[in-house]
Amino acid sequence: MRRIPFLPLLLFLLIGLGIDRGLGLLLDHLFSRVYSGQNSGGSIRLALEHPERQVMVLGSSRALHHAVPEVLEAHLPGLQVHNAGNGGHGIYYARMLQALLLERPSALRLIVLQVDVKDLYGADPARDLLFAPFYGQNPDVDAILQSSGRWAPLKLQLRTYRYNSMLLPMLSNLDLPGARASSGFVPLHGSMEGKPKQAREPAGSTASHPIEPEVVQTFREFFAAAAARGVALAMTFGPRYREPGAASLEEVEGRRLLAALADAHGAAVLPMDEIEYPELLEGALYQDSAHLNEAGARRYTALLAERLLHDPITAAALAPVPPLPADSALP
Amino acid sequence: MTVLFNSIDFIVFLVIVTAITFRLPHRFRWPFLLVASYVFYGWWNASYLVLIVLSSLVDFVLARAIFRTPERSRRLRLLLVSLSLNLGLLFTFKYWNFAAESATVLAHWFGLAVAAPGLSVLLPPGISFYTFQSLSYTIDIYREEYEPEDHLGRFLLYVAFFPQLVAGPIERAGHLLPQFRIEKTFDWNRLASGSQLILWGLFQKVVIADRLALYVDAVYNHPSEHNASSFLLATYAFAFQIYCDFAGYSDIAIGAARIFDFDLMRNFDRPYFSRSITEFWRRWHLSLSTWLRDYLYIPLGGNRGSQLFTYRNLLITMLLGGLWHGASWNFVIWGALQGVMLSASRLTLPTRDRWNDALGVPHWLRSGLRVWVTFHLVCLSWVFFRANTLADASMLLGSLTRDWGRPYIDASSLLHGLLGVAVLLAVHLRRELQGSVAPWLSRAPTPSRWVLWYAMLFAIMLFGVDGDSQFIYFQF
After folding, report:
1. Do the Cβ atoms of B463 and A161 come within 8 Å?
2. What DSSP letter does each residue of A80-144 carry, written as one string?
3. A169 to chain B, minimum CA–CA distance in Å?
4. Which of B455, B431, B402 is nearest to B200 (CA)?
5. Is the pLDDT of residue B2 over 50?
6. So which residues of B are the catalytic ones?
7. Rounded CA gap, A231 and A228, in Å?
8. B447: cis peptide before it, omega within 30°?
9. Which residues pair with A58 in a beta bridge?
10. Are A154 and A277 in contact (CB under 8 A)?
């Protein structure tokens, strides 16, 4: 084998690293101007942009399209609400966003976490690389990002890679007017025709898929982190357009597990589903069997607000904070 | 699964194997490459190795026996043993359950309440490829096209050579085997050239194919939720997804082999620039189409008889070609469509030429129309290739007659994919009009070549779908 031409190889590598760093700086700058878009990371930046908002809703598209901040604010006077849900994302997204929120000074008092139980059976941290631009800023975020693949710790060293699949969405959401003031909620339109999904006999007596221990651990960390910071937590499952009893065994067992975890960490469990609220079982309120349309979301949010005001855990977090005495100035 | 080409595992594997191979004396290279190939293949499940070794050993022995036997009938019997073993393996692992299900359905049609037994077996990766490659060897020996390989190790390597083992190109012994006898020296230009091809293959796979797959899967996996506009868009997207997935794989395979100074056959030649279905099959999956031509179509009689006889041979060849792709009626229909289109193309060509001449249609318009029509005929057949079931294919095609409206748009996937396709078409157009870019690349100054390298690398990092997605043809 001939002598290896080290010099050209080294030069190629160094120039490549330089381009990576330069592109990374440019991408960081572009990212700092994005506050909207589900695939651009803008919704993450928007949530972090509002530390004054006392109530944060986290979860998947069933949070994004269901919780209407202005309805909650109308029922919770004096409080500001932000919807940080993101379609296609679950507990790993919520945990990373929570980690970034809690490390910053904020007025946050309550997190409403809308849970998709199917996360327990197949959440994949590789879907949440939207947080890669924050790599190196928070150990909890780093830990989840590094678990997204065997070579993730190496890939994340490359600044360009951290913006994988984000450049075009960032460009299309760059400096959008009004984006920074958004409350995060995205309404859906359309309605369902036909009957709700029928209940059926389960195929066995136990779930056929195993629950993933890493996901359970992430839920545990989520609950613990909120409790450690004195932020109240309410876990919801949300309604679907289906008959009571149509839930799978996996969902039933998953809910049971999550409710036990929530109880253990002092979090409120508010199912807010079609079983608790049969009045939500109207096709006119749904865009599809899993998502409420705007009318349905407003009705649902009003019901959610009432529950939050009456649940002892969440009501305490939402109670007005008495003003400080006149002579208690901060040092 | 084996080591995936679109993974860092493969890059690490390739670097290590390259470094060690060229450090070894020539006589130790074939054993090392053979072991490396078996490690590559048995990465996740070593039991896969039993079949490939068994198939290789039997064909090695049979080929030598065929060569040494002067009596024609005995030579034929030995060939039939090879055919039975290879096709028997393929049938058992790939087609048994399909045959059993079809037989059960047929029995029920005739009022018989019987159920043919199924087999609980996993499909070994690459079995369709290496059985065909091994079969072509014994058939060529039977035809006395060359002498059998004396060296068992080199023959085992011919069947199992890792760059082309899992999804081709399906090599011919006359082309690949002699290359293993030649002592190779390491060459930096070849490393650069092979690496460029690997990078181009990765670009096609992760930037174009995997990105378009997100949209295609959303539509084709939920056909009842989408209208004709979405279906049409998804079908066009699939046309480029399957091309870039398979051509990308082939380029990675050819590039990897080139680093070791092995030349693998070209597998694709800009197929969507074809002006007829006949031309399409001279540009698409060349290693399979030439295999089918040489070992099925021509032995059946090819085009040496009447027109009807030719159409029969085309239909049988393409039906079996379709079945080779997968054990389902979707692939049978896809293959049948190819056969019908090939026959129709031959039948109507003289008439079409006369009409075009009579109407004075200029050559450029004729070619353009033919390319456009051929592309859409191919897309029609892709519906059956991609749909999960025949019922889905019918539903999707049926929607064309009634269900037009705004298409489902996944802006991110489509925009990323479109940009990639634009780059692909620009490259292909240049090659179509001015020939291969390789000579230009090799003459270009170093800074220009480095700019191209960086552009592809950063395009993959920024726009490629991250994750270990399989190649479509791995399932065959």
Report:
1. no
2. -EEE---TT--HHHHHHHHHHHHTS-----EEEEE--GGGGGT--GGGGGGGGGGTTS-HHHHHH
3. 7
4. B455
5. yes
6. 325
7. 8
8. no
9. A113
10. no
pLDDT tens-place string over residues B394-444: 989 988 887 788 888 888 889 899 999 999 999 898 888 887 776 777 778
What is the distance between the alpha carbons of residues A224 and A262, in angstroms, rounded to a whole number?
A: 9
Q: Facing residues of A292 across strands?
A: A286
Q: Are the CB atoms for A258 and A117 separated by under 8 Å? A: yes
Q: Residue B163: what pLDDT?
A: 95
Phi, psi at A291, each rounded to 5°: -130, 130
Which of A16, A39, A149 is closest, CB to CB, to B412? Answer: A39
A295/chain B closest Cα distance in angstroms: 22
- With b for 16 or more beta-carbon neighbours within 10 A and e for fewer, the A225-263 pattern comes to bbeeeebbbbbbbbbbbbbeebbbebbebbbeebeebbe
CA angle B237, B242, B244 (to 5 degrees): 95
- The residue to which tokens 């079982």 are assigned: A281
Confidence grade of residue B125 (pLDDT, cut at 50, 70, 90): confident
**Strand stretches in chain A, DSSP E:** 55-58, 81-83, 110-114, 232-236, 268-269, 286-288, 291-292
Consecutive H or E run containing B160 = helix B152-160
Other Cβ atoms less than 10 A from the Cβ of B241: the count is 27
pLDDT of residue A249: 86
Interacting residues of B220 by C-beta distance below 8 A, sequence separation 6+ = B234, B238, B386, B387, B388, B392, B396
Tokens at B335, concatenated: 């293959």
Q: What interface predicted TM-score (ipTM) does this complex get?
A: 0.86
